[in-house]
Design a protein that fits this description.
With 212 residues, this protein is of the alpha/beta class. The chain has helices at residues 13-22, 41-50, 66-75, 89-92, 111-117, 165-172, 192-210; strands spanning 4-8, 26-30, 56-61, 80-83, 98-105, 123-128, 154-156, 176-179, 184-186, 189-190. It has one domain (4-210): Aldolase class I (TIM Barrel, Alpha-Beta Barrel), CATH 3.20.20. Helices cover 32% and strands 22% of the residues. The strands form two sheets. It has an eight-stranded parallel barrel with strand order 1-2-3-4-5-6-7-8. It has a two-stranded antiparallel ribbon with strand order 9-10. The relative contact order is 0.17. Bound molecules: ligand LARABZUK. Residues 8-9, 28, 30, 32, 35, 37, 60, 62, 84, 127, 134-138, 157-160, 178-182 line the site of the ligand O=C(O)c1ccccc1NCC(=O)[C@H](O)[C@H](O)COP(=O)(O)O.
Length: 212
């Protein structure tokens, strides 16, 4: 099965359309005011209206209030939720919507145990822990921490870019890669050439894994 790609942190419709044309499976919209990639409902509507069919739209929240999440779900066509804070499993499953649980990996993080805890999630997104920000930091974590067997599809994130995407696919063999800053020209502005290169490198990794 080929490795899926989610590109996160779009603020401009033209970048999201370009990502979809290049073959990204999913685009991430950040609804987290402290982030430089935060967008409001009007921006989200402009982006989603421009997308072609069959591109999954993921809405990302960090410990957000239920009422705000429900408002966004009511107004914006969202396919999947991504919880990037300390949300307990019970809080993730009340929206009747597929969700991804993001985990910022620290030395004490027990990844397999968390997968059991969030057993109804559509995937476990593993990101780098960073002292100053909750995500989109461009930081790598030690991929050796990822268990070979996991109850949930692994979405690998954190510090990925066109230079290491092929290696990430070969080494981790995740369900998907998730990238933000590694394909940016500036925060919230995606670089078309880097998005294209990233997708090419993921395909290259898949070829070495599965076409032997
Ligand atoms: O992108 C952000 O600004 C952000 C802020 C707060 C929480 C999560 C955020 N992004 C989440 C993502 O899914 C990123 O793609 C992921 O953290 C990887 O980012 P990067 O290391 O820059 O590729």
């Amino acid at each position: 099965m080929r490795t899926r790609v989610k590109i996160c942190g779009f603020t401009r419709a033209e970048d999201a359309v370009q990502a979809a044309r290049l073959g990204a499976d999913a685009i991430g919209l950040v609804f987290y005011p402290p982030s430089p990639r935060n967008i409001d409902i009007d921006q989200a509507l402009r982006i989603t209206a421009a997308l072609p069919a069959f591109t999954t739209v993921v809405a990302l929240f960090v410990d957000e209030e239920e009422a705000r999440i429900r408002e966004i779900l009511q107004k914006v066509p969202i396919d999947c939720l991504q919880f990037h804070g300390d949300e307990p499993a019970e809080a993730c499953r009340i929206y009747n919507k597929r969700y991804i649980k993001a985990v910022r990996v620290r030395p004490e993080t027990h990844i397999a145990e968390l997968a059991g805890h969030y057993h109804d999630a559509a995937g476990l997104l593993l990101d780098a822990w960073h002292p100053d920000a909750k995500g989109g930091t461009g930081s790598l974590f030690d991929w050796n921490r990822i268990p070979e067997q996991c109850a949930l599809p692994i979405i690998l994130a954190g510090g990925l870019n066109p230079e290491n995407a092929c290696d990430a696919v070969r080494t981790v063999k995740p369900y998907a890669l998730d990238v933000s800053s590694g394909v940016e020209a500036a925060k919230g502005v995606k670089d078309a050439a880097r998005m294209a290169a990233f997708l090419t490198e993921v395909n290259q990794g898949d070829r070495t894994n599965y076409d032997r």
